[in-house]
Specification:
Length: about 190
């Protein structure tokens, strides 16, 4: 069965390749809508379902994987930054604090559906203003929830509890288990 990743994320593609999955990336064209008053697990599940369902409607004979990642801090969802100043504000807020990263996933194939959400707690180092300026100027935070990528710079994160790949954007352990159940990977 053909696997389609409903995402343009290079990080998600890399994680799927690491699982040994043969797949095609077809970004979802859905107008993502979420009720941000819901618990974070429900938010990411809803967004992952929307992405998977939209792509599955175009490729009904395939298995489609949709995913969405958010950073959750003190009751607020921190998505991708609007601009460089927003990224700097977010990094200052996370500096020296602990937040959660949630990734929801939805796999649709035939009449089946496998879905779930993973949470990883992330403790940031204290970030200097010089580091924040340099990091944002490099452009990396602009396409990432919470304005950072854990894989970008070891100086960002002091510790994490849970799945590393969940922070990157796709919980490898959970996705791998689901794809094995479906016979898509060995």
């Amino acid at each position: 069965m053909k696997l389609i990743l409903a995402s343009a994320s290079p990080r998600r593609r890399e994680i799927l390749r690491g699982l040994g999955a043969a797949f095609e990336a077809v970004p979802s064209a859905c107008d993502e809508r979420a009720d941000f008053s819901l618990p974070p697990r429900e938010i990411v599940l809803s967004l992952a379902r929307q992405k998977a369902e939209e792509v599955f409607s175009r490729f009904p004979g395939a298995a489609v994987l949709g995913a969405d990642t958010i950073v959750y801090f003190r009751g607020k969802v921190l998505g991708k930054p609007k601009d460089a100043e927003d990224a700097k504000r977010t990094l200052r807020m996370l500096s020296g604090n602990t937040h959660s990263v949630f990734t929801g996933y939805c796999i649709l194939c035939g009449g089946g559906r496998a879905e779930g959400a993973c949470e990883t707690e992330v403790e940031f180092n204290e970030l200097s203003e010089a580091f924040i300026e340099e990091y944002v100027a490099g452009g990396s935070p602009m396409d990432k929830a919470g304005s950072y990528g854990i894989q970008d710079d070891a100086r960002l994160v002091k510790a994490y509890r849970g799945s590393y790949t969940n922070i990157v954007g796709l919980p490898e352990e959970a996705i791998g288990a689901e794809l094995k159940k479906l016979g898509i990977v060995q």
